[in-house]
Structures are given as structure tokens and as C-alpha cells.
Amino acid sequence: MNVVPAQEIKRRGIAAVDDIIANGDVHIIRNNQPQYVVLSEQRYQELVADANEAYLARVRASLEDVKAGKVKKFTSADDLLKALDSEDND
Q1: At residue 42, what are phi and psi to the nearest 5 degrees?
Q2: Is residue 86 a contact partner of residue 80, using CB atoms and an 8 Å limit?
Q3: Among 26, 33, 36, 74, whose Cα sits 20 to 30 Å from the Cα of 47?
Q4: What is the mean pLDDT of the chain?
Q5: Integer-rounded Cα radius of gyration of the chain
């Protein structure tokens, strides 16, 4: 894990991160605790793309559940809550 104390950033500015970000994400330590993470633009875009793909996968799975008839419909919130309560009691 690449670590930079917050004091070092205060002293040197972003140059403190420039030196080590090529080796991966940089964790900023403040008060002896990791507080922030600095990512390269490429790494950030990868994370965003992965999150979007995971979202689409969840939507696809939900649509498959609907097509397979695994989804129950309720006419009211009370009916839904009753069904949830009966599942908890099983």
C-alpha cells in the first residue's frame, strides 16, 4: 500500500503523490488513520466502469427473475409488510 502522511502533502503539495502514484493508489494518512485515497484517472475510470457493469448485471438478473416468475406483486405496502413478517416467522 502506498502511503503519504497528510503533512507531507501540506509541505510538498501534489508532488508528494506524483512520486508514488505510478506504483498504485495512494492512501493519505491523517491523525494516524487512512483518510483519503488518491487514484490515477485511468484507475478511477476503471472503477466507474466496473461499478456500472455491476449495476447492469443486477438489473439483468432482476429482469430474469421477473421473466421466470420469481417476483411477487403486492397491492399495498401493508400486504408487503405482512409477507415479510410471515417470512421472518418461518
Answers
A1: -60, -45
A2: no
A3: 33
A4: 94
A5: 23
15/21 Cα distance (integer angstroms):
10
DSSP code of residue 49? H
**Strand (E) or helix (H) holding 41:** helix 41-67
Q: Are 4 and 27 in contact (CB under 8 A)?
A: yes
Contact partners, residue 4, CB within 8 Å, separation at least 6: 16, 17, 20, 26, 27, 28, 29
Q: In what order do the strands lie in the sheet with 2-5?
A: 2-5, 26-30, 33-38
pLDDT at residue 51, as a whole number: 98
Q: Report how far residue 29's alpha carbon sits from residue 36's, in angstroms, rounded to the nearest whole number.
A: 7
What is the DSSP code (8-state) at residue 9? H
